[in-house]
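Q: What would this chain look like folded?
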Amino acid sequence: MSPAARGFLLSAAGRQRRRFSTEAPSSNPQQQLLPKGKRELELERHGLKLLPRSPSSFTPCLDGRYLLLGPDAELNHSEISKFSENDAGAYPRYEEKLEKFCKLMDFVIDSPPPEMRHEYHLSMVDRMKDKVDKSVFWSKLLGIVMQQGQKDMVDFFDLLLSPASKILNNWFEGDVLKATLATDAVIGSMAGVHTPGSGYVLLHHVMGETGGQRGVWAYVEGGMGSVSSAISKAALEAGVEILTNAEVSQISVHHTSGKVQGVVLADGTEVLTSVVLSNATPYRTFVDLVPANVLPDNFLSAIKTADYSSATTKINVAVDRLPQFSCCKDFNPEGGPEHMGTIHIGSESMEEIDLAYREAANGVSSTRPVIEMTIPSVLDKTISPPGQHVINLFVQYTPYKLSEGSWQDSNVRKSFAERCFSLIDEYAPGFSSSVVGYDMLTPPDLEREFGLTGGNIFHGAMGLDSLFLMRPAKGWSDYRTPVKGLYLCGSGAHPGGGVMGAPGRNAASVVLEDLRTK
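A: My prediction, written as structure tokens:
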């Protein structure tokens, strides 16, 4: 038994192996990390280096056209004009509208939800303070809403409730632009462009900023593991002890008081503490690690029946040369504009995306998958040998459970990977022959390797019924849990998934508040 610890942070469970340049299932470009968190932890001083991408998006078309988008307004206008002059004029207004909504959401994201407190031992002073804090939250939110004006708020609620297809059809006429933008609404989820509420995820994916600029995405030098590395260095400097490869097998709860008293590691080591924060999924935390008899039935039922569905597969590829896209006349073997950002394959129309989704909804991996390709080694020379590159494929749609066959079957896995490579060949002939190695993470792999229930990268669906006061369960949105001293601080808590740091930062503020009122 180890000595008592002041607090214990339980990270996502599961084995972790180096996968080419990545050390986690998310090796996507970084944009959502909140500026406050970066400043407070001084992550740049601790080695975090962001490599901004411009252009940030490239959509090749089989008819020889292509669409580049990024932070350069003139480039955007020129590129969109190739498809529609009307859309070129509408796009800046669309971005301005989303920017307004992001300012409204910034306050909500930065704040713990105003949840009802369950502790009845609070003093009268603490109860009064809690009521005042909630009143302050709602009054501030009302003030922000009033600044928006009625028309903007109607548009905001339309965005929250509508399918992405409706929002984008109202703004634009060009299929390629709409499909490119629509990928943000469905990425990482078992949802289609016509799914009600998918419009909100359009907004979720443009929150955050890089270098003070909203909507600018960047690669992290050294891969996404460098984010964890910088945070760990900040923690070590503050006196934190970090254990790696130390899987938690149980969260210990006192049998009479119902308070958390520590954790038990897989090797039997006990760590005693009165505070435990878990950034594992809600299911992993409360179903697998917490003894079932200490949780209220309605809470446990809500956790078990939450939507953890996923249609995401990650393929990490090592290649001996950059892909050469047929639609681009000029090719730079060191990397051109088309290689800098996210490359959208199989996304020339929303109907194409919807068909891929409907196949997966019936248990069939998409015949023509929706692929988001990134090549971070074009900007980050630290992650691959000279002349070679690392390519990340974020693929949809792949159901967790196939109607025929199994992801355990090596032939099924190989066939799907080759299907993805062949689709890329249609846009960049010879891609398949450039592949020197790859590994693939299907939804069951993501669950097994990283503890992501159902393979869901957001720790649970991002529908409106699973956000804010409803995340992870109604009545428990403020990071506290039915087990006193146990807090949820990962993507399964408000405000949800994405490498933004908001759940952890907000949870830490709640823990500190509770320690002050002890």
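Residues 13-26 have pLDDT under 50 and may be disordered.
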